[in-house]
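Suppose you are handed only these lines of text.
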Amino acid sequence: MTKFIFVTGGVLSALGKGLAAASIGRLLESHGYKITLQKFDPYLNVDPGTMSPFQHGEVYVTDDGAETDLDLGHYERFTSTQTTKANNWTAGKIYEIILRKEREGKFLGKTVQVIPHVTDEIQKSFYAVANNNDIVIVEIGGTVGDIESLPFLEAIRQMKLSLGSDVIFVHLTLVPYMQTSGELKTKPTQHSVKELRAIGIQPDIILCRTDRPLNKDIKGKISLFTNVPLNAVITAKDVNNIYEIPLHFAREELDLIILQRLGLKPKTRDLKKWTTMVRHMNNPRDEVNIALVGKYAGLQDSYISLNQALFHGGAAHQIKVNISWIEAEELENGSPEKILQEADGILVPGGFGVRGIEGKIQTVTYARKNHVPFFGICLGMQCASIEFARNIAGLQDANSTEFNKETPHQIFFKWRELKGVFDLGGTMRLGRYSCTLEKGTLAGRIYGKNEIHERHRHRFEFNPEYESRLREAGLVISGKNPDHDLVEIIEIKDHPWFLGCQFHPEFKSKPLEPHPLFTSFIGASYAYRCRKKTS
Ligand code: GLN
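From them, the structure of the protein bound to glutamine can be written out as follows.
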């Protein structure tokens, strides 16, 4: 019998529900339980694929090609779960299913209603990932009190009604500290729980997000007003390093309380590797400066997996990675030498649209000529290939049809649309594809194997018609997709570290298994920094 933990949030958004849920997952895995996590988002988009990263943050991509909420990235980084499209649901996706059934006449003349039809469909989707998992942790997006989360809350209430002690509720709230009176305030938590109880949900555990530990009096007050036992009122203190959260929760014995509530036996909690990892992260022996040249510099969350992958790569060397975001457009009017002078390594990440492209291409020229380690991801690989075509292969005006449809040299184009290779319905290449590596290349050495699998999210492809011309000019094509003969990785010779990949390696990096490309890139950037210092 699979057990369910439903995680809700109150008071305000962005309290870290996803990280809290992922940390609970980590703790339960540390007792040997098999778990997975699911995210439910109350908005009406069918998935976040079409949403602006400014608004919604990163679109995380799973192996099976689902475009999902960024919290799934936390789930995969904190636990060993492998998420799929069944791990992320939105109100839009639920309604889409229901409306299709309605049109097919599956409701046999009945009136289709939120209760029971929508709530039944939501409950069905909780089981979509139950399989042979001992525990499913379900995060309900939004904040309790929002109109649009109501059907989800009603569905989890009904789950409790039918499954009893196999279901528990964890509620995350804010306990703010008031500077003026010098005290922690519990009222927002009281109100949020009151709201939950009004719709029939009594939380079993309260996680209190706060900037300082809660003393017994405060916990007692929250316990009294919310009807939650004292030991289940948990301090969720702000942390500098998100990977500390499971360790803080363990100190509060959150894992033991959860297991006891679910009637599961605690086993020996094994967090040895995790603890060592956090210690390494928090005690770096040196640092390195990485410049990210792109768009969306404003919102940290738009590139959350990338930031994490760089952090993991640094931790592998026990080096702190300082990331500086540079708006690509800045380079179009300024001097790269000046703007990029502090960089020990340069990364051009994935992105969409023409804005800033020329600045990114200038960045590549700078990194290539000055032997600064360069990593181009997806759009970054497009820029690196265009730069090579223009400046080394002598193909003036080389471009991608994404940025200039009239270009005489279409180095990148919507290949599958022209050749009709993919008939997947969507317009993007999404999810897991295999890639065969060329022996003796940088990529071959870094991965140390012949075949790898990485995740994609893009429309444009390297144009096969230019492959031999660019190879002749010295471009190294070190990875190709064996099924469709697509170029997946490019490199240049006589450079300490220069690599562009069509896929997004950041989606597969985990703190305990840093991605080899990031580990290698940070290592090379650090070596560059040391050379720079001594020369
Ligand atoms: N805009 C490019 C494409 O669609 C690159 C996408 C990306 O960087 N993920 O092919």
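What can we learn from it? The pocket of glutamine is lined by residues 350-352, 378-379, 402, 457-460 (CB under 6 Å). The CA atoms of residues 283 and 318 lie 7 Å apart.
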